[in-house]
Amino acid sequence: MSANNVVLAITGASGSAYALRLAQLLLAAGKNLHLVVSGAARQVMARELAAEFPRNGASSEEWTAMIEHTLAGPIASAWGFCPPATSNAAPSHGSVRAYGTSDYSAGIASGSFRTSGMVICPCSMGTLSAIATGASTNLIQRAADVHLKERRPLVLVPRETPLSLIQLENMTRLSQAGATIMPSMPGFYHRPMRIADLVDFVVARILDHLQVEHTLMNRWGEEPSLD
How crowded is residue 57: how many other Cβ atoms within 10 Å of its Cβ? Predict the structure, then answer.
């Protein structure tokens, strides 16, 4: 079903934990994850979480195991990550299919392949610029272009500071074209106690825009947890 197809692209901005946590929650929600990882993202992942992404031809089980292993590893454990609440009742039943950045034969390169949305998390300024100009020089950019032209949800999660005028203008152009610009800026009204709480705040907002139910955080107006 198209509603279960979600595209996730991971690029070379800082914030690998956002991407892995998002992937974990989408899989726990039963989504078919169509994944594209840039070469720069692989380098950043190794530096931030001391882990490596599987090869593009790896099985869904290998990708799922890597995500779970990394989020249960020494670095992520120190940050306080916990398994998704849904995994207590039922195991993850989503799937992963990964593509190379030059694989234009992938379904996600065409508007005829139906999805419920695409997220680029984290989104580098180079990727954001290329999408804003319609470059489509790799599969990530092409898939994003497809989601814009088909009027499907496209969520971009940039992580950069400070922002130049060029970067701000690119974000404005993409917002006007229909994309959602969601910088990885966590709130604090849910009283975060761990790094994982800050990551989950951003991931929760992404899931909201994809219409995926979750219990990652207390919403505004709800009593914050003191755990």
Answer: 9
Q: Where are the domains of the chain?
A: 2-209
pLDDT per residue as tens digits for the range 2-14: 779 999 999 999 9
User: In this structure, is the dihedral angle defined by the CA atoms of residues 224, 222, 15 and 61, taken in order, positive or negative?
Assistant: positive
d(CA 8, CA 23): 8
State the DSSP code for 22.
Answer: H
- Global confidence as pTM: 0.94
Q: Which residue has the tokens 């234009």?
A: 104
32: closest CA among 106, 93, 110?
93
Tokens of 42: 């692989």
CATH architecture of 2-209: 3-Layer(aba) Sandwich (3.40)
Local confidence band at 118 (pLDDT 50, 70, 90 cut-offs): very high
CA pair distance 57, 63, nearest whole angstrom: 10
Q: In what order do the strands lie in the sheet with 95-99?
A: 95-99, 32-37, 5-10, 117-123, 154-158, 180-181
Position 163 pLDDT exceeds 80: yes
